[in-house]
Amino acid sequence: MGTLYVVGTPIGNLEDLTFRALRVLGEVALIAAEDTRKARILLDHYGIHTPVTSFFEGNEQRKLEPLLAALEQGDVALISEAGMPGISDPGFSLVRAALDAGVTVVPVPGPSALIAALAAAGLPTARFLFLGFLPRKASEQRATLQEIAAVRATLVCYESPRRVQATLALLREVLGNRPVVLCRELTKLHEEFWRGDLEGALAFLEVNPPRGEFTLVIGGANPEPAAWEESRVRAALAEKLRAGLSRSQAAREVAALSGWPRRDVYTLAGEMG
Q1: pLDDT value at residue 260
Q2: What is the mean pLDDT of the chain?
Q3: Does the pLDDT of residue 231 top 80, yes or no?
Q4: Percentage of residues in the chain with pLDDT exceeding 70?
Q5: Is 225's pLDDT higher than 60?
Q6: In CATH, which superfamily holds the domain spanning 114-218?
């Protein structure tokens, strides 16, 4: 029985591949890659000629059995398009299937946009919550943010240039105006960090159209938020009700921001009609 190696690969700069990863990729019998084209670019750069097979979201279920069969004959390395497999990338299903089949799974740590962003952002790192990519549907995005609105840990999520402005606007609406760091094109030629708050980030992207992939690092909830005055609660409720939220949704979001008990905010929303 072979070993499944979960190998981290560069997220932009090819020099970030570790010596250990180089050795493993050259010694295994097969590499399962999320993107075979990008894998071949990396392997060719280092003169590695190991056979490569595809393993991505669209085919992972039907590729599990062939890959488990390959593991019966020798070692297999799993790599994603960039970074660590299984971290907002395919990989979990193969790792789980391999473990269930009695295969040894060995991590070969490498680059990660999540860790790189946290390390350089300048926001607290003692505790953080990784959200991956937020759901595509706006209603599901809102529900996710409502669930974590009171979390005091630093928040981290990935976002595409096409959706980043809408995501920042929703973060501002649901979580309030928190500190944020926009980490763009990490480790690549045009790597950029913008530091400020959510309102400032929206203004910045209005005049600097987003390009490249983003990692957003967002400040956690205030550990002891001062309760709002009733007039401010009413104003926030009125704004959210005008935006089309139900009384329950509006109460939940305003309660998370205001320091008021949700039941009291809901009652106030009822009084407002």
Answers
A1: 87
A2: 93
A3: yes
A4: 98
A5: no
A6: Tetrapyrrole methylase, C-terminal domain (3.30.950.10)
Fold of 3-111: Cobalt-precorrin-4 Transmethylase; domain 1 (3.40.1010)
In the 3-class helix/strand/coil scheme, how is the chain assigned residue by residue? CCEEEEECECCCCHHHCCHHHHHHHHHCCEEEECCHHHHHHHHHHCCCCCCEEECCCCCHHHHHHHHHHHHHHCCEEEECCCECCCCCCCCHHHHHHHHHCCCEEEEECCCCHHHHHHHHHCCCCCCEEEEEECCCCHHHHHHHHHHCCCCCCEEEEEECCCCHHHHHHHHHHHHCCCEEEEEECCCCCCCEEEEEEHHHHHHHHHHCCCCCCEEEEECCCCCCCCCCCHHHHHHHHHHHHHCCCCHHHHHHHHHHHHCCCHHHHHHHHHHCC
